[in-house]
Target: Glutathione S-transferase family protein
Amino acid sequence: MAFTLYNAPQSTCSQRVRFVLNAKGLPFDEVKLNLLEGDQLKPDYLNINPNGVVPTLDHDGAIVIDSTVITEYLDEVSPDQSFTPEDPVARARMRALMHFIDEMPAAAVRVPTFNLAFLPSYQKMSRDDFVAHAESKPIRREFLLSMGQTGFPQAEMENALGRLRRAYMRMDTEIEKSGGPWLLGENISLADVAVMPALVRMHDLGMPDWQDLPRIVTWFDNIRAQPAFKPTYYHGSLLSERFPHLQEVIAKRA
Model:
């Protein structure tokens, strides 16, 4: 099986897929796209992913898009080291959690990400260039235009942080119900992989708002101790490694 992953080092969705590939020991070629330079909007890439986002998986010529779909696909074509429960009820719980994760923490984390990391790059653009850039995004157009070149207002930041906090609380409840240490119990699942990048991102931004939740602290330590974690988060995968100005932002929050 030959895998090629089109992705971006700092993309949280890309990190999900890299983790599963690494955990399964599946060799893959990595095509790194520079999202700020618009690599994901070039015609050649849009031909394989019309959404103009990362990641995209090419498996022996078969194209699979959307990180959640890709991780499930990988578990189906390479069932060794499975991240999917065999029990149908547990499988349904996992998929419901994955939907929740995409709706809540995975979406909410974009607001602090763009405000703190990406905004300075957009502020350097002319207004016309920024609008053209936003208009070129097939599924992120409205998000960028609502942010503008001044960033999301404080109220929207607080709303996003509140949604993230509710996600941590939901994780805590799920771990308590299952007996842990993972969301569904003894075995790590695709739901754990799905939520992992959001917590890594907030930790990297100096905003780990789960320190009062011991089960989440343990979960976070456990996910970072997984053998697949280090090769997934190679140097340059964290925003603080890509954007030097974040060091000052993080220091102010310390």
User: Anything to note?
Assistant: The chain has two domains: 3-77, 88-253. The two ends are 46 Å apart (CA to CA). The mean pLDDT is 95.
